[in-house]
Fold this sequence. Notes:
The protein is of the alpha+beta class. It has helices at residues 18-21, 26-33, 62-74, 161-169, 207-219; strands at 2-6, 9-14, 37-42, 47-52, 57-58, 82-87, 90-99, 102-109, 128-134, 137-145, 149-154, 179-187, 190-197, 201-203, 226-231, 234-241, 244-250, 252-254. The model has no long low-confidence stretch (mean pLDDT 97).
Amino acid sequence: MELYHGCQNSFIITEDRYFIEHPKDVPHFCQQYEVDGLIVYIKAPLEMVLFNADGSLATMCGNGIRCFVKYGIDAGLILEDKVVVKTLAGNRVVQVLKKSPFFARVNLGTPSFQAKKMDIDISEEEMFGQSVMLLGQIYPLYAVWTGTDHVVVLVKNFKSVEAIGPLLGRNKLFKRGINVNFMRIIDSKHIEVHTFERGVGWTKACGTGSSACVVVGNRLGLLESEVKVQLLGGELMIELVDQDVYMSGPAVKID
Protein backbone atom coordinates (compact mmCIF):
# COMPACT_ATOMS: atom_id res chain seq x y z
CA MET A 1 0.00 0.00 0.00
CA GLU A 2 1.14 3.54 -0.80
CA LEU A 3 -0.36 6.90 0.17
CA TYR A 4 -0.90 9.77 -2.27
CA HIS A 5 -2.76 13.06 -2.29
CA GLY A 6 -3.97 15.57 -4.84
CA CYS A 7 -4.45 18.98 -3.21
CA GLN A 8 -4.66 17.16 0.17
CA ASN A 9 -7.45 14.87 -1.11
CA SER A 10 -5.75 11.66 0.03
CA PHE A 11 -5.86 7.99 -0.95
CA ILE A 12 -4.45 4.56 -0.28
CA ILE A 13 -3.34 2.98 -3.56
CA THR A 14 -2.85 -0.76 -3.78
CA GLU A 15 -2.58 -3.45 -6.44
CA ASP A 16 -4.27 -5.95 -4.11
CA ARG A 17 -7.70 -6.87 -5.49
CA TYR A 18 -8.78 -8.12 -2.08
CA PHE A 19 -10.76 -4.93 -1.50
CA ILE A 20 -12.84 -5.42 -4.65
CA GLU A 21 -14.24 -8.58 -3.08
CA HIS A 22 -14.24 -7.20 0.49
CA PRO A 23 -15.24 -3.50 0.35
CA LYS A 24 -16.48 -3.73 3.95
CA ASP A 25 -12.81 -3.66 5.01
CA VAL A 26 -12.12 -0.36 3.26
CA PRO A 27 -13.36 1.94 6.09
CA HIS A 28 -10.96 0.37 8.58
CA PHE A 29 -7.93 1.10 6.42
CA CYS A 30 -9.12 4.60 5.48
CA GLN A 31 -9.59 5.44 9.16
CA GLN A 32 -6.23 3.93 10.08
CA TYR A 33 -4.36 6.02 7.50
CA GLU A 34 -6.70 9.04 7.75
CA VAL A 35 -7.43 9.19 4.02
CA ASP A 36 -10.49 10.00 1.89
CA GLY A 37 -10.54 6.82 -0.14
CA LEU A 38 -8.87 3.66 -1.40
CA ILE A 39 -7.86 2.98 -5.01
CA VAL A 40 -7.20 -0.45 -6.45
CA TYR A 41 -4.67 -0.23 -9.30
CA ILE A 42 -5.32 -2.73 -12.09
CA LYS A 43 -2.50 -3.00 -14.64
CA ALA A 44 -4.04 -4.55 -17.75
CA PRO A 45 -6.16 -3.05 -19.03
CA LEU A 46 -5.29 0.01 -17.00
CA GLU A 47 -8.21 0.51 -14.61
CA MET A 48 -8.91 2.55 -11.48
CA VAL A 49 -11.33 1.01 -8.96
CA LEU A 50 -12.14 3.60 -6.33
CA PHE A 51 -13.80 3.29 -2.94
CA ASN A 52 -14.91 6.16 -0.72
CA ALA A 53 -13.84 6.20 2.92
CA ASP A 54 -17.13 4.55 3.93
CA GLY A 55 -16.49 1.60 1.58
CA SER A 56 -18.95 2.68 -1.10
CA LEU A 57 -17.87 2.34 -4.72
CA ALA A 58 -17.23 5.65 -6.53
CA THR A 59 -17.53 6.13 -10.28
CA MET A 60 -14.81 8.74 -10.70
CA CYS A 61 -12.44 11.06 -8.81
CA GLY A 62 -10.46 13.89 -10.38
CA ASN A 63 -7.78 14.06 -7.71
CA GLY A 64 -7.72 10.28 -7.39
CA ILE A 65 -7.02 9.64 -11.07
CA ARG A 66 -3.98 11.95 -10.97
CA CYS A 67 -2.71 10.07 -7.92
CA PHE A 68 -3.40 6.79 -9.75
CA VAL A 69 -1.20 7.82 -12.69
CA LYS A 70 1.52 9.19 -10.39
CA TYR A 71 1.58 5.83 -8.58
CA GLY A 72 1.89 4.02 -11.92
CA ILE A 73 4.85 6.18 -12.93
CA ASP A 74 6.57 5.79 -9.56
CA ALA A 75 6.14 2.00 -9.72
CA GLY A 76 7.49 1.83 -13.28
CA LEU A 77 4.15 0.59 -14.59
CA ILE A 78 3.42 3.67 -16.73
CA LEU A 79 6.11 4.81 -19.15
CA GLU A 80 4.07 7.05 -21.46
CA ASP A 81 3.13 10.69 -20.87
CA LYS A 82 -0.41 10.06 -22.07
CA VAL A 83 -2.57 7.18 -20.85
CA VAL A 84 -6.17 6.03 -20.98
CA VAL A 85 -7.58 4.93 -17.63
CA LYS A 86 -10.74 2.86 -17.37
CA THR A 87 -13.18 4.06 -14.67
CA LEU A 88 -16.81 3.37 -13.85
CA ALA A 89 -17.60 6.72 -15.49
CA GLY A 90 -15.92 5.60 -18.72
CA ASN A 91 -12.40 5.88 -20.13
CA ARG A 92 -10.49 9.01 -19.10
CA VAL A 93 -7.40 10.39 -20.82
CA VAL A 94 -4.63 11.67 -18.56
CA GLN A 95 -1.80 13.78 -19.99
CA VAL A 96 1.29 14.09 -17.79
CA LEU A 97 2.57 17.65 -18.24
CA LYS A 98 5.42 17.44 -15.74
CA LYS A 99 6.83 14.51 -13.79
CA SER A 100 8.72 16.44 -11.12
CA PRO A 101 6.88 17.98 -9.45
CA PHE A 102 4.07 15.89 -10.90
CA PHE A 103 1.37 17.82 -12.75
CA ALA A 104 -1.25 16.33 -15.07
CA ARG A 105 -4.24 17.31 -17.19
CA VAL A 106 -7.30 15.06 -17.23
CA ASN A 107 -10.14 14.99 -19.75
CA LEU A 108 -13.19 14.42 -17.55
CA GLY A 109 -15.48 14.04 -20.55
CA THR A 110 -18.75 15.78 -21.35
CA PRO A 111 -20.86 16.95 -18.39
CA SER A 112 -24.56 16.13 -18.17
CA PHE A 113 -27.40 18.08 -16.55
CA GLN A 114 -29.92 15.22 -16.78
CA ALA A 115 -31.60 14.78 -13.41
CA LYS A 116 -32.45 11.17 -14.24
CA LYS A 117 -28.75 10.36 -14.68
CA MET A 118 -28.14 11.56 -11.12
CA ASP A 119 -31.27 9.89 -9.74
CA ILE A 120 -32.78 13.19 -8.59
CA ASP A 121 -36.43 13.04 -7.59
CA ILE A 122 -37.89 15.96 -9.59
CA SER A 123 -40.31 16.15 -12.50
CA GLU A 124 -38.11 18.45 -14.58
CA GLU A 125 -35.40 17.15 -16.88
CA GLU A 126 -32.77 19.22 -15.07
CA MET A 127 -32.20 20.61 -11.61
CA PHE A 128 -30.90 24.01 -12.58
CA GLY A 129 -32.01 26.81 -10.31
CA GLN A 130 -34.76 25.06 -8.35
CA SER A 131 -34.72 26.05 -4.69
CA VAL A 132 -34.91 24.22 -1.38
CA MET A 133 -35.46 25.59 2.11
CA LEU A 134 -32.86 24.56 4.68
CA LEU A 135 -32.58 25.96 8.19
CA GLY A 136 -34.86 28.84 7.28
CA GLN A 137 -32.95 29.91 4.18
CA ILE A 138 -33.63 29.35 0.48
CA TYR A 139 -30.86 27.82 -1.64
CA PRO A 140 -31.07 27.60 -5.46
CA LEU A 141 -29.49 24.32 -6.58
CA TYR A 142 -27.62 23.44 -9.77
CA ALA A 143 -26.95 19.75 -10.43
CA VAL A 144 -24.43 18.43 -12.94
CA TRP A 145 -22.70 15.11 -13.60
CA THR A 146 -18.94 15.36 -14.22
CA GLY A 147 -18.09 11.70 -13.83
CA THR A 148 -20.11 11.56 -10.63
CA ASP A 149 -23.12 13.42 -9.20
CA HIS A 150 -22.74 17.00 -7.97
CA VAL A 151 -24.93 19.84 -6.81
CA VAL A 152 -23.54 23.38 -6.78
CA VAL A 153 -24.62 26.13 -4.38
CA LEU A 154 -23.47 29.72 -4.90
CA VAL A 155 -22.48 31.50 -1.68
CA LYS A 156 -21.01 34.85 -0.68
CA ASN A 157 -19.05 33.25 2.16
CA PHE A 158 -18.68 29.88 3.86
CA LYS A 159 -20.09 30.78 7.29
CA SER A 160 -23.16 28.52 7.18
CA VAL A 161 -21.99 25.70 4.96
CA GLU A 162 -20.88 23.35 7.77
CA ALA A 163 -24.50 22.73 8.75
CA ILE A 164 -26.00 22.88 5.25
CA GLY A 165 -23.60 20.48 3.48
CA PRO A 166 -24.66 17.25 5.25
CA LEU A 167 -28.36 18.20 5.18
CA LEU A 168 -28.28 18.85 1.47
CA GLY A 169 -26.10 15.87 0.60
CA ARG A 170 -28.58 13.53 2.27
CA ASN A 171 -31.75 15.34 1.19
CA LYS A 172 -34.52 13.01 -0.01
CA LEU A 173 -34.45 14.73 -3.42
CA PHE A 174 -31.21 12.86 -4.09
CA LYS A 175 -32.09 9.18 -4.00
CA ARG A 176 -28.49 7.99 -3.76
CA GLY A 177 -27.13 11.06 -2.00
CA ILE A 178 -25.02 13.68 -3.76
CA ASN A 179 -21.75 15.59 -3.55
CA VAL A 180 -22.35 19.18 -2.44
CA ASN A 181 -20.13 22.03 -3.63
CA PHE A 182 -20.30 25.55 -2.23
CA MET A 183 -18.86 28.04 -4.72
CA ARG A 184 -17.75 31.58 -3.98
CA ILE A 185 -17.00 33.56 -7.12
CA ILE A 186 -14.00 35.87 -6.76
CA ASP A 187 -14.11 37.03 -10.38
CA SER A 188 -14.87 35.47 -13.77
CA LYS A 189 -11.57 33.55 -13.74
CA HIS A 190 -11.24 32.67 -10.05
CA ILE A 191 -13.47 30.80 -7.61
CA GLU A 192 -13.23 29.22 -4.17
CA VAL A 193 -14.90 25.87 -3.46
CA HIS A 194 -15.70 23.83 -0.34
CA THR A 195 -17.05 20.30 -0.84
CA PHE A 196 -19.07 17.89 1.28
CA GLU A 197 -18.37 14.59 -0.44
CA ARG A 198 -20.75 11.65 -0.53
CA GLY A 199 -19.22 8.69 1.30
CA VAL A 200 -16.42 10.83 2.74
CA GLY A 201 -17.67 14.03 4.41
CA TRP A 202 -15.89 17.37 4.22
CA THR A 203 -12.82 17.09 2.04
CA LYS A 204 -9.94 19.47 1.33
CA ALA A 205 -10.37 19.19 -2.44
CA CYS A 206 -12.64 17.68 -5.07
CA GLY A 207 -11.62 17.66 -8.73
CA THR A 208 -14.95 16.64 -10.26
CA GLY A 209 -16.68 19.04 -7.85
CA SER A 210 -14.45 21.93 -8.92
CA SER A 211 -15.26 21.05 -12.51
CA ALA A 212 -18.98 20.99 -11.74
CA CYS A 213 -18.74 24.49 -10.28
CA VAL A 214 -17.01 25.88 -13.36
CA VAL A 215 -19.50 24.18 -15.68
CA VAL A 216 -22.43 25.68 -13.75
CA GLY A 217 -20.85 29.11 -13.41
CA ASN A 218 -20.05 29.20 -17.12
CA ARG A 219 -23.60 28.19 -18.08
CA LEU A 220 -24.94 30.97 -15.84
CA GLY A 221 -22.67 33.46 -17.63
CA LEU A 222 -20.68 34.18 -14.47
CA LEU A 223 -17.43 32.39 -15.33
CA GLU A 224 -15.17 32.17 -18.35
CA SER A 225 -14.06 28.90 -19.94
CA GLU A 226 -10.75 28.76 -18.05
CA VAL A 227 -10.95 29.16 -14.28
CA LYS A 228 -8.55 28.75 -11.36
CA VAL A 229 -10.17 27.00 -8.40
CA GLN A 230 -8.93 27.63 -4.88
CA LEU A 231 -9.56 24.68 -2.55
CA LEU A 232 -8.72 24.13 1.10
CA GLY A 233 -5.83 21.88 0.03
CA GLY A 234 -4.50 23.63 -3.05
CA GLU A 235 -5.39 24.85 -6.54
CA LEU A 236 -6.78 23.29 -9.70
CA MET A 237 -7.19 24.70 -13.19
CA ILE A 238 -10.45 23.86 -14.96
CA GLU A 239 -10.93 24.39 -18.69
CA LEU A 240 -14.01 23.98 -20.86
CA VAL A 241 -12.97 22.99 -24.38
CA ASP A 242 -15.68 22.25 -26.95
CA GLN A 243 -18.01 19.84 -25.07
CA ASP A 244 -15.48 18.48 -22.58
CA VAL A 245 -14.10 19.50 -19.19
CA TYR A 246 -10.36 19.40 -18.48
CA MET A 247 -8.85 19.48 -15.00
CA SER A 248 -5.17 20.17 -14.31
CA GLY A 249 -3.41 19.72 -10.99
CA PRO A 250 -0.70 18.05 -8.91
CA ALA A 251 -0.33 14.67 -7.23
CA VAL A 252 2.12 13.87 -4.43
CA LYS A 253 3.34 10.70 -2.78
CA ILE A 254 2.97 10.82 1.02
CA ASP A 255 6.15 9.55 2.69
